[in-house]
Amino acid sequence: MSSIMKATTDNGLLLPVPDQDGAPFWEFAARGELRVQVCGACGRLRFPPRPCCPHCQSFDSAWRAMSGRGRIWSYVLPHPPLLPGYAAQAPYNAVIVELAEDPGIRLVGNVVAAPAAALNSVDTSRLRIGAAVRACFHEIPEGVTVPRWLLERP
Amino acid sequence: MASLKDATAIVGTGQTAFAKRLDDPEKTLACRAILAALDDAGIEPSEVDAFASYTMEETDEVEVAKSIGAGDVTFFSKVGYGGGGSCATVAHLAAAISTGQATVGVAWRSRKRGSGKRPWTDVHAQLPTPAQWTRPFGLLRPADEIGMLTRRYMHEYGVTRDHLFNVALACRNRANQNPAAMMYERPLTREMYMTSRWISEPLCLFDNCLETDGALACVVVSADRARDCRRRPVYVHSVAQALPTQHHGMVNYWNDDPLCGPAWTAARQLWKTADITPDDIDVAQIYDAFTPLIPLSLEGYGFCARGEGGAFTEGGALEIGGRLPLNTSGGGLSEAYVHGFNLITEGVKQLRGTSTAQVPDAATCLVTAGEGVPTSALLLRS
C-alpha cells in the first residue's frame, strides 16, 4: 500500500487515502474480497468503519465477507469542470450500491462493462435505480485495488 | 432554565460588493464588511468584545480585532462544516452575550470563492474521513454528492426538474430586484434552465450556487442595548445547531434515512424553543447551495410533509405574494454565495422593512445554514 502516498494514478484518478479504520477494507480488496466491518458483540454490520459499535459500544470487531451482490440505490453523471483524469472520461457514472446482506450498507463506486474498463464504459441509459449489480475488482497500475460493479443484466 | 429567546438582537449589518473577482484580499474585505456593520449599528469598533466566524474563514479574529481596533475581546468561536456554520455564528454570540461573557459581538464571513480555487480541486486534501469511500470513484464535488441524493429524492417522491426550476426562478426573480446581486440584470427562463449544461446530472448549471468574492458581517448585542442602537432591532428569537444521529456530512449515504437531513434535527430544536410555528413565518432565507436543498429543507423545517417539498414549490409559492417568499435577496443561487451569510443579513433587512424585495409587514423570518452537513438555523423577529 506504499503507493497510496501518491495522490493520483498516472492517468489522474484519485487514489483512496485510507485512514486507520478503513485500511482493512482496502487490504481485503487487494485480495479480491469485499468485506464490511461487523460488531464482535452484537453482530451488526457497520459502514463506514469506526472504532466502536454505535449500537452496543463494543470495541470488538471483525471483517465479514460479503456476497458482492447489490442494487443501485442512486447514481449521478458528472460533467466538467472536473479533475483532468475524470474530465477525460466524462460523463461517467458514480453510483451508490446497497448490499444484498444489508441494504443499509451502501458503497459508492462505478458501474463498468468489465473490471478494467473505463468509467464511461456502460451506456448511461442502462443505469436505473434498483438494477442488480455484482462486485468485481480492478487493480490499478499503482498497486491499489478498487471494487467496481458489473450489471447483472448488461 | 435560562433562555436565549429574544434576549439578543442583530443591530447592524454590512457587506462589500459581490463579484466574480474583487481586487481586495479576504482580510480587507472582512474588515470593510465588519466596519460597515458597526457603522450601521452606531457602535464604535472599540466596543467589540466578541467574534464568531466559520472554521473555513481564513482571516482569524486576531487579525480582524487588531485591524478594526476592537477592545479587549472576551469571547471568540469558530463553527465548522462550511456553510452549515452560518447561523451558528450568530447563535454562539447570542449565547455568549445573554450569559454575560461579552457585550458586543461581530459575526462575519469573507471569501474569495469567485476568483480563488475550488476546494474540491485539491487532490491532496482528502480531509473528511469519508473521502476514501467517495472521491476515488469520481464523486468529487459537492454538486456530485448532492446530485446523488437528488436523484434518489426524485425517484422516491416524484420531485421533478420543474420543481427545482421553481426554486432557481424564485431566487433569480428576487435577484433581478436587487442591484447588489450578481444576477441583477440576468433574468432566467424555463427554456434557459431546461437547455443548460449538466454539472452532475440530475443537477444542471442553474441548480448550482454562484461563485463569489465578497464579505458580510452582522453585529449582535443584548436586547436592552439594542433599543439604544441606530436601527430597529431584529431579535434572535430561537437558535439551533444540528448534528443528527448517525449523520455523515454531505455524503450522508450511510444512515437509515439519507433524505432526512440535519434540517429535521435543527427544526425540532428551533420550534421547541420558539413561540411561533412554521405557519407564522412571513419570509424564509433557506440555504441554497443547490436547488434541491430547498424542497428538502421545506420538509425538514415543517412547512410541508415528508416528500411534499417539490409540490410545495408549485403555483408561485416561493415568490413574493406566495405561500412562503424565499431568499428575497436572490440567495446563494442568484445574489452571492458567501457560505450563506447573505441569508442572515437579508433576514435582518426584511424585518427592518428595507429589503429590495420587501414582503409587506414581514415580522418573522426563518434563516437556515447549509443543509446536508451539520447545520444551524435562526428564527428572527421584529
TrEMBL record, chain A:
List the InterPro entries hit by this protein, alphabetically.
Answer: ChsH2_C, ChsH2_Znr, NA-bd_OB-fold, Thioester_dehydratase-like
Give TM segment ranges: none
Looking at the record, the residues that make up the ChsH2 rubredoxin-like zinc ribbon domain are 26-59
Q: Which domain of life is it from?
A: Bacteria
Q: Which Pfam families match?
A: OB_ChsH2_C (PF01796), zf-ChsH2 (PF12172)
ChsH2 C-terminal OB-fold domain location is 63-138
User: Which PANTHER family does the UniProt record give?
Assistant: BLR3430 PROTEIN
Q: What is this protein called?
A: OB-fold domain-containing protein
TrEMBL record, chain B:
User: Which residue ranges does the record assign to the Thiolase N-terminal domain?
Assistant: 9-185
Q: Name one matching Pfam family.
A: Thiolase_N
> Domain Thiolase C-terminal: where?
256-374
Q: Which domain of life is it from?
A: Bacteria
What this protein is called in its record is: Lipid-transfer protein
List the source organism.
Answer: Streptantibioticus ferralitis
Lineage in the entry? Bacteria, Bacillati, Actinomycetota, Actinomycetes, Kitasatosporales
